[in-house]
Design goal:
It is built from 6 helices and 7 strands, in the order H-H-H-H-H-E-E-E-H-E-E-E-E. The chain is an alpha+beta fold and about 270 residues long. It has a 6-stranded mixed beta barrel with strand order 1-2-7-3-6-5.
Length: about 270
């Protein structure tokens, strides 16, 4: 016995538009694309509009799937994310973003259907969609922030006299401090880490002027170490006669790093 379904084109358009916006936004976050809201909305309009047009005009379901699963998503990522800088790697860029958008459509669609059936018994489709969007966007933002933070963490080896200290350092693009006496960039270390060394070797420190949001005309103790090594992948970058400021332990409290690298060191 054949089944007859009623499909409302306006509902089909709105549903596709909302899901396309969500999936494009997630693709942009995870693949670190430049996110422009207007372009994402335009790409989603293109995708949902093509969905309605293909639904009305195509009698072949195979052709419909080919267009809606390949051609239309490629056009969507072109509209949403493609820029001139991607011209030299156009094919790789499009394939990567198409795969991302396709995978997110499967994940978000499956999650939304499960929430709608399990929590709302099939009665609140749009509420399930909003909940799915909230979960997906929150998870993606947390994931990206952690990835960004991990990209700025480096293993550092500090050599002072005959002592060697291994620690985690954070590369801070906002640390612009320069030693006015020698003209070198200044990194900041937790002062307590050097105390055992200072008990054996009395340090030669000098006062450097600095300004920050909390203190416009401050002074900080600093010294010069013989060598500083920053591990980048399998290689180490060597900085000779590196200038290190002695920071307050409260600056590093509950942090996963013990040193703040100057932005000019990398």
């Amino acid at each position: 016995m054949a089944c007859i379904y009623e499909i409302y084109l306006d509902v089909l358009f709105v549903n596709n538009f909302l899901m396309d916006v969500l999936n494009l936004f997630l693709t942009g976050i995870f693949l670190r694309n430049l996110i422009h809201k207007g372009r994402i909305l335009l790409a989603a309009l293109f995708g949902s509009g093509m969905g309605v047009i293909c639904f009305l005009m195509l009698s072949s379901y195979r052709l419909y799937r080919l267009i809606m699963y390949v051609a239309v998503p490629l056009g969507m990522v072109m509209i949403a994310f493609f820029t001139r800088k991607h011209t030299t790697q156009r094919v790789a860029f499009l394939i990567k973003n198409w795969l991302g958008c396709f995978l997110f459509s499967i994940l978000t669609g499956g999650c939304m259907q499960w929430l709608n059936k399990s929590l709302f018994y099939g009665q609140h489709f749009y509420l399930a969609m909003v909940l799915t969007a909230g979960i997906a966007v929150s998870a993606s933002i947390i994931w990206r922030s952690r990835k960004e933070r991990s990209r700025h963490l480096y293993q550092v080896r500090l050599c002072y006299h005959e002592h060697e200290l291994l620690l985690e350092a954070y590369y801070d693009t906002g640390n612009l401090l320069i030693d006015p006496y020698v003209g070198k960039p200044v990194s900041i270390i937790d002062k307590e880490l050097l105390m055992p060394i200072f008990r054996e070797d009395e340090p030669v420190v000098r006062l450097l002027p600095f300004s920050s949001m909390g203190e416009k005309n401050g002074l900080v103790e600093a010294l010069t170490v013989e060598e500083l090594y920053i591990k980048e992948g399998k290689k180490e970058r060597q900085i000779l006669q590196a200038v290190i400021a002695l920071g307050s332990p409260s600056l590093f409290q509950k942090k996963e790093y013990q040193m703040i690298l100057n932005c000019h060191l990398l």
